[in-house]
Structure of RDD family protein:
Amino acid sequence: MPAADPWRRLMGIAYESIILFGVLWFADYAFSALTQFKGHPGPLRTAFQVFTLIVLAAYFTGFWALGRRSLPMKTLSLLVLDGQDRPLSYARALGRFSAATAMWLAALAAGYYLSAWLYLLALLPFAWTLFDRDRRALYDVVAGTRLVRRAPDAGMKSVDV
């Protein structure tokens, strides 16, 4: 299957962000209601941040593993595969999420602690798609995965791992 072009990838990110707004709003509202978290610094804030990261990890890992796709991925005919063009296992999907999260957090930390210009490093994984011959993002290179454009009528069965 052909690699997803950078424009399709960007549209997928934008569409996924709209869906994630609702998912995170409800999950974080539930956390705040159950714990009476008001946003103040302290251990509860750290727990809130870890909870949000776990929700994101569950969302993406669940939709990337075993050939499943989120609504934006279905709409844009996107699919994440491993290096041998097979559906991802849960471990590889979690690895892809972890690599992407680590790169994003590293860019935020560099921008905060070193120089505001370094926030631009958050764009590096996506800019990598312009130079990689397989159009993989930098976190795809690290995780051994690739985002492909799948024909809308092509069927792919889920695989038990």
Q: What stands out?
A: The mean pLDDT is 91. The first helix runs from residue 6 to 35. The CA atoms of residues 41 and 48 lie 10 Å apart.
